[in-house]
Amino acid sequence: MTPLLSVQGITKRYGAHIGCADVSFDLYPGEVMGIVGESGSGKSTLLNCMAGHLAPDAGQVVFDTRADGPKDTVTMSEPERRMLGRTDWAFVHQHARDGLRMGVSAGGNVGERLMAVGERHYGDIRGKATDWLERVEIDADRVDDRPTTFSGGMQQRVQIARNLVTGPRLVFMDEPTGGLDVSVQARLLDLLRGLVRDMGLSASIVTHDLAVVRLLADRLMVMKSGRVVEAGLTDQVLDDPQHAYSQLLVSSVLQV
Amino acid sequence: MIELKNVSKTFTLHNQGSAVIEVISDVSFHVAPGECVALTGASGAGKSTLMRMVYGNYLTQFGSIRIGDLDIVQAEPREIIALRREVLGYVSQFLRVVPRVPTLDVVADPLRALGVPAENAQARAEDLLAQLNIPQRLWSLSPTTFSGGEQQRVNIARGFAHAYPAMLLDEPTASLDATNREVVLSLIEGAKTRGAAIIGIFHDEAARARVCDREIDVSAFTPELAA
Q1: With contact defined as beta carbons under 8 Å apart, do A220 and A237 qualify?
Q2: What's residue B17's pLDDT?
Q3: Contact list, A183 vs chain B (CB under 8 Å)
Q4: What is the nearest CA distance from A178 to chain B, expressed in angstroms?
Q5: Proportion of chain B above pLDDT 70, given as a percent
């Protein structure tokens, strides 16, 4: 089987400081990869390099494109990469306001991505946008309201609807449940799991919450100081961590 | 179906003076289809450790553990994920679920993951929950609020939803009343009849005697604790 995404030797430096160094892994269709580590360990830098938001200093991010098969997205042209960014890729930001247009209605936020891939029929766009808002459990009568009138958890769900409406194959998520209260987190986790299963999505999730990765991720990478110190099956890394840092991370979790 | 050859495991505790603890040493045994093998030994002997090594959430340092055609010790994560979806079932002692998900969906989930249509998966889940005497009014609620015994039964229903060719059962009859214990034992017997290879841990001796064909005393493979 061809990996959907093959990351090879990704390195990003900020001057003399290492963002992330020599990270390699393969992500297969339908797999969810969790990336954990303390703040400053390079998780988000890696995610941004993978998603094309940051240019890595070295390495390749090979994506299995629908048209041409595996292609390195680091060296591909800007328009091509942007096209991927609004079709097969989706990026869920930690703060919903980074991924939404706050001055445009919820329906408009979802519809914009459809227009970007060529949909022009207003009725269809509105219909699909409403459908997706309902799938993320936002009432259809809020479709014309701006995200500024929504709660944080609702904004996060609008952001997810906006990202998934074009049927992406790969979703990058940066702390998707961070900053939300626990009951909203549970709702969102349930939603994400259902979407991953029903749409066959692959996803790469950066988080510092080990409970979130246990429930969502098939595989896990533990990062420290920009490097991957351990990788494997999620329950193996959490139940039988091998590296000193992973052991510390797992044993530091407060029992609820 | 399940074959362990010269399997050994050590834990290295880096943050506790790099203590190396050898927990399992040189285990070999084989479980045929339709056979149920019990792991026995005092608490702390390594029964659950050995079971987790077979499931793959504990790493094995030496030897091989073959389930069907796959060696768990050498396999890639995605091969183990596929194996767990299709071949290897595990009923742990604890139910771990996404909060807020209805019991019916929790039980149907392993079948949905295999691509079984929602209606069929749901019908199977309803059947199992009814067999295990979970009142129908609870099916639409999340099991996180259930009693210990109810959670255990939901866990068993989930574990038996798909007809796995290989199964691991960690104390499946613990904390169950006589009626439900009987249901679980007949589910195990049913799985054996259809040819499942089963490894089980039972503290309940009568249950063990009834469903297990052989016993393996794990203490025989537990080395003295070395610092």
Answers
A1: yes
A2: 85
A3: 99-100
A4: 16
A5: 98
Give the one of B12, B56, B98 whose C-beta lies nearest to A233's C-beta: B56
pLDDT tens profile B145-159: 899 889 999 999 999
Compare CB distances from A244 to B14, B58, B98 and report the shortest one's residue: B14
With a cut of 70, say whether residue B227 has pLDDT above it: no
pTM over 0.90: no
Judging by beta carbons within 10 Å of its beta carbon (0-12, 13-18, 19+), is residue A182 exposed, middle or buried?
exposed
DSSP string, B93-154: SS----TT--HHHHHHHHHHHTT--HHHHHHHHHHHHHHTT--GGGTTS-GGGS-HHHHHHH
A248 chain-B contacts, CB cut-off 8 A = 14-15
Residue pair A217/A234 in contact (Cβ under 8 Å)? The answer is: yes
**Residue-wise pLDDT tens digits, B114-155:** 989 999 999 999 999 999 999 999 999 999 889 988 999 999
What backbone torsions phi and psi does residue A14 show, to the nearest 5 degrees?
Answer: -110, 90
Q: What gap in Å lies between CA B157 and CA B151, rounded to an integer? A: 10
In angstroms, the separation between the Cα of residue B165 and the nearest Cα of chain A is 22
Closest B-chain CA to A234 = B57
**Which residue among B59, B98, B112 sits closest to A236, beta carbon to beta carbon?**
B59
The verdict on A135 touching B (C-beta cutoff 8 Å) is no
Virtual torsion, Cα A227, A230, A233, A237, nearest 10 deg: -130
Q: Say what angle helices A152-164 and A122-135 make with each other, to 10 degrees.
A: 130
User: Which of A136, A124, A187 minimizes the C-alpha distance to A161?
Assistant: A136
**How many other CB atoms sit within 10 Å of the CB of residue B106?**
23
Q: How far are the Cα atoms of A158, A168, A174 from residue A98, in angstroms, in the given order?
A: 12, 19, 11
- Token pair for residue B82? 């596929």
Using the CB atoms, write b or e for B81-100: b if 16+ within 10 Å: bbbbeebbbbbbeebebbbe
- Do residues B89 and B167 lie in contact, with contact meaning Cβ atoms separated by under 8 Å? yes
